[in-house]
UniProtKB/TrEMBL annotation, chains A, B, C:
Key words of the record: Cell membrane, Membrane, Transmembrane, Transmembrane helix
Keyword hit for DNA-binding: no
Topology with respect to the bilayer: Multi-pass membrane protein
TM helices/strands, residue ranges: 6-25, 32-52, 117-138, 150-168, 174-191
Keyword field contains Cell membrane: yes
Superkingdom: Bacteria
Record-stated family: Belongs to the UPF0126 family.
Glycine transporter domain span: 7-79, 93-164
Name of protein: Putative membrane protein YeiH
UniProt signal peptide: none
PANTHER family with a match to the protein in the record: INNER MEMBRANE PROTEIN (PTHR30506), UPF0126 INNER MEMBRANE PROTEIN YADS-RELATED (PTHR30506:SF3)
């Protein structure tokens, strides 16, 4: 079970890093910039969560495996970006899996550190979407996770389910599993069917 | 007194969150993006301050009321943005009140955690303007608080007065009150009379 | 020796702050915005490093000298920006010195706080380039340190040498000196000869 979770965790890291590398290639950054965006996309969310709950130094820095995997994904994205572009659909599915895993485990970790359910859910969401926000800010564009179909909302739903499950005394790993499944399912359906949240209509010119 | 301060604190949170929601509506973010910008504008400054002085987890995460108020403001901004746009003047005054309160209380908290007067003043300023910076960065524009009329400078003056008062041994709550009043007064006059700091003239084309 | 290191440290702070001030002037920020960008460029890297290794409050806040030097550089940049523009070459050399020093000392500090060699090297790099990233994000442009000739790579090489030296048991200050020299030399040669990392070619229109 633990090995399975670790594998999922590293897979999520790889996919998030790949999204950073692809964005860097599109913005014509050099090899190093590609690696930086890969790492930023993969570990920023977890690092911000760890700093906020006081778990310093962050796990992404104390275990070299996350940065190693992120750099490997960066190199892969640098070398095979044309191929990855064509794989957009599978990548989106993997990305949804990474989001689900990060949101659920992030909420669990925040609860372990004594935060309340509301804050823990928010930190779980931040674990999931923080990497995408950092990635987009580094190339000076409005973070796509604030605009994509039910992206952060899916993370929020997954994290909330984890918090509720723990609050109700459901034993691990069921709250984590339910939260991750809910997040993945919601995001998957949103991609499939183009589900969107309402957008306010600002006064036109 | 404590209740009055808490009310002011929540009012400042609400107004800052409203400014984030309005910016999000203007950038056509969806409902969730509006809530994120509302929360970012309301609590980022305090969170950065708390992380820097080592007070983790930050108060904005341990007390749910701040996020609840920020989300309420986000919903209000989403629903009634046209109305809020027309109220620009009252909102600017409330925003000045929020800035004054955050700068004064932020400086006080940093002093309580043992920082020197100069650093505490800077952290007070950061408490006041950090939310506006995070809000603007999330839509990839140069933070308006670095350009508006005496915005950050008013926060700096208010924080400095708090630090000086504490240094001189003036008993609470007078340093806080004086600092908040100075910040509010300065910002109010700057809005009224369009006071500006000098701008350097870069070499023309 | 310690005095010499402190002098170098403050010189690096001054030069980094100057780069922030120059960017602010070019973006027509007011005097306060110039000071903010000067401080952000000078101390952000060190502050992020200190927060990540759990050394709060950060050194840049507990010792007033860094902020004082950064503000002095900001004022100088505001007043004499035309002159500084003409001195671009000497400033680039000083900037390389600042980068080398920050990367080496940042890696050393992270090792002192018990991080592994890989993470410490990354934190050293972050100490060196973090200020430039913060400076550029504040005016909403893609950080130049992700694009310049071997900028972050030089910091990485210098930090890595420090970590290797410490790992091999070489006594201080030799690892620090070797790391700083390597970083400076690499960056200097890259400026001289226009050395670049490869850039991936995204699919054309």
């Amino acid at each position: 079970m633990a090995t399975f979770l670790l594998l999922l965790d590293l897979l999520g890291t790889f996919v998030f890093a790949l999204s950073g590398a692809m964005l860097a290639v599109r913005h014509r950054l050099d090899l190093f910039g590609v690696l930086v965006l890969a790492c930023a996309a993969a570990v920023s969310g977890g690092i911000v969560r760890d700093v906020l709950i006081g778990a310093t130094p962050p796990a992404a820095l104390t275990h070299a495996r996350y940065l190693v995997v992120a750099c490997a994904a960066g190199l892969a994205g640098f070398r095979w970006h044309a191929l990855v572009e064509r794989l957009r659909n599978p990548v989106q599915i993997l990305d949804a899996a990474g989001l689900a895993l990060f949101a659920a485990s992030g909420t669990g970790k925040a609860l372990d550190y004594g935060l309340g359910p509301l804050s823990a859910t928010l930190l779980g969401m931040l674990s999931g979407i923080g990497g995408g926000i950092a990635r987009d800010l580094l190339v000076a564009r409005t973070p796509v996770v604030l605009q994509a179909e039910l992206y952060a909302v899916a993370a929020l739903a997954g994290g909330g389910l984890v918090a509720l499950g723990r609050l109700a005394g459901v034993p691990d790993p069921w709250p984590l599993a339910a939260g991750a499944a809910a997040c993945f399912g919601l995001r998957f359906m949103a991609i499939r069917h183009g589900w969107q949240l309402p957008v306010a209509r600002p006064p036109g010119p």
